[in-house]
Design brief:
The chain is α+β, with helices and mostly antiparallel strands. It is 28% helix and 22% strand. The chain has helices at residues 4-15, 30-35, 42-50, 120-137, 144-155, 176-183; strands at 53-56, 59-62, 79-84, 90-95, 101-107, 113-117, 165-166, 190-193, 202-203, 212-216, 222-227. Helix 1 (4-15) runs parallel beside helix 3, helix 1 packs parallel to helix 4 and helix 4 (120-137) packs across helix 5 (144-155).
């Protein structure tokens, strides 16, 4: 099991080996969790109660207290924003209506919807593991910025492109999750099924739709890109 205590220990070990401050932020309190607009299950409370954020310069991951966490950013609710790229792209935890925290997804301004990890603990484990690997292999002779470039190159997984289907073709789907989503979005919306896909998989809604807003099925991570106005 990947715990907040374990991740925090690894962060402090990493901080002792690198020439910059990882700036580990304190976690959320019980009172903080009570004020959040999303349910917080026990495993998420344990993790986010230990780590509120940290930095891999020049990138900062703000897991709690992010100034944009309360907005929707064109995302379906409920969700929990964990970071943004400064250019309109956001990374977020997909949350079921019953409160289960699921996949970590990245929505690029251009680039579609990417599956980053099966869960928040697995996403954080990969981030810290990527930094640990770079410390072992490259050192810091070339400075912080080359390290950061290598970090992103190594972190991003290259998975398959997922099929997209117009909602009009799925209204009679034998899969009730898909059929219900298709029934409540316009005919021209595009639907992608993210159930059980590998991290690195991506739904390239942006290749067909210039602007869109995401809608989510009830009961499973199935998403529709609903066309927006130009």
């Amino acid at each position: 099991m990947i715990s907040g205590d374990n991740l925090l220990e690894r962060l402090y070990e990493l901080a002792a080996r690198v020439p910059f401050d990882l700036a580990v932020q304190p976690g959320a309190t019980a009172a903080d969790f009570d004020r959040w607009p999303v349910p917080v299950p026990a495993e998420a409370r344990e993790l986010l109660g230990r780590i509120g954020g940290f930095a891999v310069p020049p990138v900062e991951f703000t897991l709690t207290g992010h100034p944009r966490q309360a907005g929707d950013h064109g995302l379906p609710h409920p969700h929990w924003l964990v970071t943004d790229d400064g250019g309109g792209g956001v990374t977020w935890v997909d949350i079921e209506a019953d409160g289960r925290w699921g996949q970590v997804l990245m929505q690029y301004r251009e680039g579609g919807l990417h599956v980053e990890a099966d869960s928040l603990p697995h996403w954080l484990d990969r981030i810290i593991g990527t930094a640990e690997e770079l410390v072992e292999e490259t050192g810091f002779e070339e400075g912080v910025q080359p390290y950061a470039d290598d970090f992103w190159d190594l972190l991003q997984l290259d998975g398959p492109e997922l099929p997209l289907h117009p909602a009009a073709e799925l209204r009679d789907s034998p899969d009730p999750v898909v059929a219900r989503l298709a029934a409540r979005v316009p005919d021209g919306a595009l639907i992608a099924d993210l159930r059980g896909v590998l991290p690195g998989s991506r739904a390239r809604f942006d290749r067909a739709l210039r602007r869109y807003r995401l809608a989510r099925a009830v009961g499973a991570p199935v998403f529709a890109a609903v066309p927006g106005e130009d």
